[in-house]
Each structure stands twice: as C-alpha cells, then as structure tokens.
C-alpha cells in the first residue's frame, strides 16, 4: 500500500484523516502544482492565446468553386 492509502498508525492520539480532508489536501497540492506549471510555461513563452492553425487560416485566401 502507498503512504496515502495506508491507515495511520502510532500512539500519538492523532485521529485518522477523513476522506474529505484527504481530498481537500490533494486538490490543494494539485492546484499548487498546476499554478507552478502555468508560471513555468508563461515564462518560457509557450502560452499562446490562439492556436497556430487558427492564425494560419486567417491569413489564407478563401478557397471555393471558380477560384484558381
């Protein structure tokens, strides 16, 4: 069993964490990781507001019947 799913043991009188508390802690850790990743990506300049395909389509002339 992993550390997260193993029941807590010890005589310290500490109560085991409830499922809701565990989920809240995991979500807080995930949010922190995602915030750090977002900051890293923005610093690297890889965060673009529009995908490259959309930008390329805007600059191409429309194609249709009768157009060379």
Keywords:
68 residues, mainly alpha, elongated
Description:
50% of the residues lie in helices and 0% in strands. The protein has 68 residues and is mainly α. The mean pLDDT is 74.
Describe how the helices and strands are arranged.
Blueprint: H1 19-44, H2 52-59
Give me a quick take on this structure:
This protein is mostly helical and 68 residues long. It has helices spanning 19-44, 52-59.
The major β-sheet equals:
none
- Count of DSSP strands: 0
- Which structural class do the helices and strands define? mainly alpha
Count of separate DSSP helical elements: 2
Can you write the helix and strand succession as a string?
HH
Question: Averaged pLDDT, please?
Answer: 74
- The helicity comes to 40-55%
Amount of beta strand: under 5%
Radius of gyration computed on alpha carbons: 25 Å
């Amino acid at each position: 069993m992993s550390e997260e799913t193993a029941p807590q043991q010890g005589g310290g009188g500490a109560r085991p964490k409830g499922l809701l508390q565990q989920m809240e802690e995991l979500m807080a850790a995930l949010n922190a990781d995602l915030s750090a990743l977002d900051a890293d990506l923005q610093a690297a300049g890889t965060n673009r507001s529009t995908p490259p395909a959309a930008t390329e389509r805007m600059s191409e002339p429309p194609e249709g019947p009768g157009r060379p």
